[in-house]
Design a protein that fits this description.
31% helix, globular, alpha/beta, two-stranded antiparallel sheet
């Protein structure tokens, strides 16, 4: 009987596999009807806002959603109404800096076309209570597939372990497994609809 010997996974193969997953998910995000995106985003918001960790967090870092992603606009507004300090990511020197987003902040497009505050007011990562994380895909264990630049992996690895991270996704973004490398950082929980 011939035993099947599996070759070790090569990082180059993982990178190619990740790109295949990214391409497939990006197509699904573009094809999703806007009314479905809005409805599912509302359901995800309801689930997030019912989480104990959300209620306890005084400082929450959201991402400002781009076209196709789980919409965080209403989440941010309602969190501010609830009296939470809201932070958003600002890309600077290949890293993410958590910056204050007050309700009167003027926004401008950052290096990747993502909206960020025009006036940067950085807040230390150890102050965070909760980080809301985008992703192209997740598995139920919290492994995450981002856009390939490693910004969130570096950011999540830099904050204290006590800070909870939650990924937001649509149901079709939840995959049975996510290819990973040693530098990939998972989230504590994934909320999807």
């Amino acid at each position: 009987m011939n035993a099947h010997i599996q070759e070790p996974v090569v990082l180059k193969d993982v990178a190619l596999t990740k790109q295949v997953f990214r391409n497939k998910i990006l197509v699904k995000l573009k094809r999703q009807k806007e009314e479905d995106r809005v409805l599912k985003s509302r359901k995800i918001k309801e689930k997030l806002f019912s989480e104990t960790v959300f209620h306890k967090a005084k400082i929450v870092m959201f991402y400002i959603s781009v076209v196709g992603e789980v919409d965080t606009t209403e989440m941010i507004k309602e969190a501010q109404i609830l009296g939470k300090m809201v932070l958003v990511p600002v890309c600077w020197n290949r890293t993410i800096v958590a910056c204050l987003l007050d309700n009167k902040a003027k926004l401008q497009k950052g290096p990747y076309g993502i909206w960020e505050p025009a006036v940067k007011k950085p807040i230390p990562g150890e102050s965070l209570g909760l980080v809301i994380v985008p992703g192209l895909a997740f598995n139920k264990k919290g492994n995450r597939l981002g856009r390939g630049k490693g910004y969130y992996d570096r950011f999540l690895s830099s904050i204290p372990p006590k800070v909870t991270s939650i990924g937001l996704a649509f149901d079709f973004q939840i995959l049975p497994s996510i290819p990973s490398t040693p530098t990939d950082v998972s989230v504590d929980k994934v909320i999807f609809a």
